[in-house]
Amino acid sequence: MDNNPQQIDPPKKKVVVCGGGVIGVCTAYFLSKKGAAVTLIEQSSIACAASGKAGGFLALDWCDGSPVSSLARASFGLHRSLAEELNGRELYGYRPVNALSLSIAESENPPRSRKSKLPPWIDGPAKTPKTIGTTETTAQVHPQLFTRTLMEKAVAEYGAEVVIGKLLSVETGGGKISAVVEGGGVIDGDAVVLALGPWSSKLTLLSSIIRVNGLKAHSLVLEPKEMDAITAHALFLSYQPAHGGQPMDPEIYPRPTGEVYVCGMSSEEEVPDDPDQIEPNPDSIRVLKRVAGTVSSHLGVEARVKAEQACFLPCTDDSIPVIGEIPGMAGCFVATGHSCWGILNGPATGAAMAELVMDGGSSIVDLTRFSPARFVGGIGKRR
Ligand SMILES: Cc1cc2nc3c(=O)[nH]c(=O)nc-3n(C[C@H](O)[C@H](O)[C@H](O)COP(=O)(O)OP(=O)(O)OC[C@H]3O[C@@H](n4cnc5c(N)ncnc54)[C@H](O)[C@@H]3O)c2cc1C
Fold this sequence. Notes:
The protein is an alpha/beta fold. It folds into 2 domains: 14-80 and 142-210 and 318-375, FAD/NAD(P)-binding domain (3-Layer(bba) Sandwich), CATH 3.50.50; 98-134 and 214-316, D-Amino Acid Oxidase, Chain A, domain 2, CATH 3.30.9. Helices cover 23% and strands 31% of the residues. It has helices spanning 22-33, 50-53, 69-85, 88-92, 143-158, 204-207, 282-295, 342-359; strands spanning 14-18, 37-42, 57-59, 95-96, 98-105, 126-133, 138-140, 161-164, 167-173, 176-181, 186-189, 191-194, 212-223, 233-240, 251-255, 259-268, 304-316, 322-325, 332-336. Strands 6-5-14-15-16-13-17 form a 7-stranded mixed beta sheet, covered by helices on one side. The longest helix has 18 residues, at 342-359. The chain is globular, with a radius of gyration of 22 Å. Bound molecules: flavin-adenine dinucleotide. Residues 18-24, 41-44, 48-51, 54-57, 166-167, 195-199, 217, 219, 263, 275, 311, 313-314, 336, 338-344 line the site of flavin-adenine dinucleotide (FAD).
């Protein structure tokens, strides 16, 4: 008789993560690293939407004093450690950067004075430069490369799986929770995490509790001829167009991947069902090109235009992300509403969600403030 039977590992917890943006992918990464058997469902491709078209700017303390302060601080640190662990500098353009605020009036064409302390590539009519972030407190990633690298690691090293298909509904019964995918597929799990970004409200289960609005924003990716001349400075502009146009606050991020990202021009619009159907508005793209060329001659007509694009920020009614278990639906979790800070806050959201699903609570960040329960009666009830 065998008195020492081979120890059998308990079955892995099966978790279905829906949505392949930065929030779903970070959740899948940390869950699979913690030992869950993860299946991620994405309707198009990983980082096809905002998570692939964002700026990728990260700040330690810019959210201080707001409800996401602890999330942002934890996430900034996680970005730094992930970059070391995953060779982020080479694989997804992680680097500390300086951040400057500048005022630009388009009508003031003469170049700035030679005495200016601005880096020489900012050779347009920039005024009142102010350092608002240093390499200690601000950094960047290439968001699409970051998100895709994390998913690749989750698959290659921790056995996660990716299914391309559209989630139609979530069903419960028989102690299981199941994701129903277009075409008839059903993926069973012990838990489901919904990270659908601005598409969250299109799922009946979520729209009955929270409203997530999409705010459309535009961006350009330029490849300047002389990238070596362009320093690692993220620019935050107060921009006054000529002829009395509305003031704007576009942003410009040079990247170590040989490109310069320019974004701005947001408007409220209906989110199309298919992320691949999101088209930029030509007028908004024209304005961004003018902004880029006014700030720097390196970003004018001589720069190659690599991408003209638009995407939607996921915004909740109270401007605070929703991260937690859905009341009355044990095993079904939601993580969305990260607005303009989803790339920064992705890692701490994913790590906290992984703890919540696997251990029943998060030690990384106190998630109480983010609970979807706030929309279901009591404080912060949806108005
Ligand atoms: C112009 C711009 C610049 C930005 N710059 C920054 C920045 O510098 N720093 C920063 O921190 N943040 C930035 N952000 C914000 C950041 O991009 C977002 O907060 C973040 O990408 C949101 O991630 P997400 O995973 O929630 O949503 P998304 O990236 O939209 O991902 C949701 C995913 O879910 C999938 N999906 C939806 N419905 C279904 C379904 N039914 N079935 C299957 N899959 C589905 C979608 O296809 C999509 O891939 C910026 C955003 C914009 C628009």
